[in-house]
Amino acid sequence: xxxxxxxxxxxxxxxxxxxxxxxxxxxxxxxxxxxxxxxxxxxxxxxxxxxxxxxxxxxxxxxxxxxxxxxxxxxxxxxxxxxxxxxxxxxxxxxxxxxxxxxxxxxxxxxxxxxxxxxxxxxxxxxxxxxxxxxxxxxxxxxxxxxxxxxxxxxxxxxxxxxxxxxxxxxxxxxxxxxxxxxxxxxxxxxxxxxxxxxxxxxxxxxxxxxxxxxxxxxxxxxxxxxxxxxxxxxxxxxxxxxxxxxxxxxxxxxxxxxxxxxxxxxxxxxxxxxxxxxxxxxxxxxxxxxxxxxxxxxxxxxxxxxxxxxxxxxxxxxxxxxxxxxxxxxxxxxxxxxxxxxxxxxxxxxxxxxxxxxxxxxxxxxxxxxxxxxxxxxxxxxxxxxxxxxxxxxxxxxxxxxxxxxxxxxxxxxxxxxxxxxxxxxxxxxxxxxxxxxxxxx
Length: 443
Fold this sequence. Notes:
Elements: E1 5-7, H1 12-17, E2 23-25, H2 38-42, H3 54-65, H4 69-79, H5 86-102, H6 106-118, H7 124-140, H8 144-156, H9 164-174, H10 178-194, H11 202-213, H12 217-230, H13 234-247, H14 252-264, H15 271-284, H16 287-300, H17 308-332, H18 335-339, H19 341-354, H20 357-370, H21 375-387, H22 391-398, H23 406-417, H24 424-430
Antiparallel strand pairs: 1-2
């Protein structure tokens, strides 16, 4: 009937989240497919005009058939006084709708539809479609309470229009009823998944924006976590994890763990992320991890191999990485390391930093056996398992994580479920860290 969608300009919120653009249903010229014919309106569906309105109805019909807008407008003006019954008024406003269609005037189209619906004479087979497009017009005019009313009526009447759920969701969100909007979005997501289809990304985008605007960060992250599951692109990973970085300001250990997941998801796409990662890993004492992440940045093209700052870091950390890797590997093989939970964990952390994840797993398990409630050890065991390609074990470990790394654990679980094999980033990390042969060029 109407052209359903046009692109809206990106909002500032969408830019922050890296969101896809929301589309809005915008009424345009109606087509004949879903219009009631004059005969259907006057004779079918229980519509019967009064005797006094019959002459006017004939003039309206003739002008409409001729597609003569001026004649139709004149006939409408003349017919106003003789339209006395609900049936008369229904037919009168049907032709008001035709004027809007012929003149491509959405305001007149909306007025005609609304007046037809208000008579209570709309044929049952048209209730869903008329309410949908009335809601469509209201949504385009940002009259969200009216849009909700009409779209809910269309839904109740059995509308199957694909644009109904997104518009209804967005009307609730824009009308301040965020939970109701998210309820509709979540139902759409669940239905799409149950049908084996990928949910529309706007079912995540708009609720996330609304939650962020309302300062409901946890709910926003719930939505974005679901979005990453269906849209696991580097961009969605980066933008979701960037929010976690903002939350973890001042917690260097947490920031490093967030950046590690960003790296594993191939979502480190800008130089500042490598700068922060390298600085945190240097401060934490993981030279092998520093070397590995810088080389990954160079190989991906984010860090030019002529970058003097990073080449200076490689020059200083490369020799340390080699000696540290040998010492840590030796410590991992000592029975005393397994017997001391604190040493076992720190050694495992260093092994993961060096990319030797398989050796780290039994050390984390030993540390966890001594302290079953240690959420950090539980979390890092899951990371090591995920990087080693042990997806099922990693998911089981992450499910037990509580506390401030629970969100990271949920995101890592999504990453682990994506495939048993390590990601390209993890595979790069799994290679033993060796100093560059020619640090000045990042070799």
